[in-house]
Amino acid sequence: MKTPLEPFDFNRREFLRGGSVASLAALFGMVQTGAQDAKPAEAEKAVTATNTGVIGLGTRGREAVAVLGSLSNAQVTALCDHYPSALKRAGNTAPKAKQYADYRQLLGDAEVAAVVITTPPHQHREIAEAALAAGKHVYLEVPMAGTVEDARAIAQAARIAGKVVFQPGLQERSHPQSHFLLPFVRSGGAGRTIKARTQWHRKTSWRSNSPNPEREKELNWKLYRETSQGLVGEIGIHQMDILTWFFGQRPKSVMGFGTIQQWKDDRQTADTVQCIYEYPNDVHVSQELTLTNSFDSEYSMIYGTDAAVMMRENKAWMFKESDSPLLGWEVYARKDSFYKDLGIALVANATKIVAQGKNPAEEAPYPNPPLFYALESFLFNAHELTTATKDFIENFGGDDPKALADHLATLKLLPAPKWREGFEATVVALKANEAIESGEKITFRDEWFVV
Asked: Which of 145, 217, 329, 386 is most buried when burial is the number of CB atoms within 10 A of its CB?
């Protein structure tokens, strides 16, 4: 049974169109008055659930099944995993879904319109290409593949697919908070960007146990070089993609270091890594990830000449320099104490929070996990694309693919990454992992990003 969650937030798309520091200032001004947002006419649209299949039912796959079950625009109608117990366990969450041991059987199910692929990256290419060829909308977890060659092949297939949505799992690109912060960072609200830093700290072995040695090896694909892209590929890709997106440009080079500090088993991938990325204009980003300590959890920082911005989960704060210019709205904004500094809360959707009598700094305006917003966008966009394609062909025929493409380009879709963003983020992550394993600095080449 579906649980009631917040409806599609079309306001975030409207804010993105006209986003600027002025928009942010206006929003904070509205916080003081408690003004209500006007409800867009689009939000009145009836929600149609898209029949969706999930391929790969490990931890991430089961999370996807649970999230899909909470979305009003999703109907989980098929599950696939070659391991019977995994299939059975996921089936408890989606009891009405058909169960398949072979992904090709699921792709042959005419009732399935969209698929979410959550298998290990080294299995992505074969499944993703087959899904696109079968005319399914595809949500593919990142990294898109375990090699640049495989990722490029998937990107090429997605590029020519045309009438279906292909969305890589860069989930933060669909998160409303990210779109709230984007115009602020891009327009220089924190001054000229000097550097950035990201971290991910979690004490966990990353190992799963099984009484079956063969199955245990399969479950622990993240621990071995032939099947894993390491911490920077499996986790760090999301942090670096957000910074690359906010900066509006790719890194120029990367160097990295990795060691096994805590978990002295048969693993080959490091449990602690550090990377330094060089961006244009002498901006450097340091990234550290570890499975050995949980202190301070995970967050990202952007340091500018006027302020620093902290992004932690679905919240953000600005820390101003004493000599920075006064923007105006920050005088009235909520301040939170961080040791010796005060963080000015950058809160999205604050008008609705105030209208509900809540504190905008303490309430999370978008409380659902990032995967919720990513899958929400994926299925909404898939439905819109399918409906528009069908209507166009019924009215004008299918003889003019360019006219159809031009028509589809006018659709108002929810924010989501496409194949190019997924491919470029994958290349950066794979090369960063290569730098860690080789101990050598890698300079990115433009040809690596060509599809």
From this structure: 145
- Per residue of the chain (451 residues), give pLDDT as tens: 333 333 333 343 343 333 344 444 444 433 332 333 333 334 345 578 999 999 999 999 999 999 999 999 999 999 999 999 999 999 999 999 999 999 999 999 999 999 999 999 999 999 999 999 999 999 999 999 999 999 999 999 999 998 899 999 999 999 999 999 999 999 998 999 999 999 999 999 999 998 889 999 999 999 999 999 999 999 999 999 999 999 999 999 999 999 999 999 999 999 999 999 999 999 999 999 999 999 999 999 999 999 999 999 989 999 999 999 888 777 777 888 898 888 998 876 555 555 555 665 566 678 899 999 999 999 999 999 999 999 999 999 989 989 998 999 999 999 999 999 999 999 999 999 999 999 999 999 999 999 9
Does this model's pTM top 0.85?
yes
Residue 6 DSSP symbol? -
Torsion of CA 288, 293, 294, 299, to 10 degrees: -10
Q: Do residues 291 and 202 lie in contact, with contact meaning Cβ atoms separated by under 8 Å?
A: yes
Q: What is the CATH number of domain 11-173+370-418?
A: 3.40.50.720
Ranges of each domain in the chain: 11-173+370-418, 189-355
CA distance 342 to 160: 50
- To the question of domain 189-355 being in CATH 3.40.50.2300, the answer is no
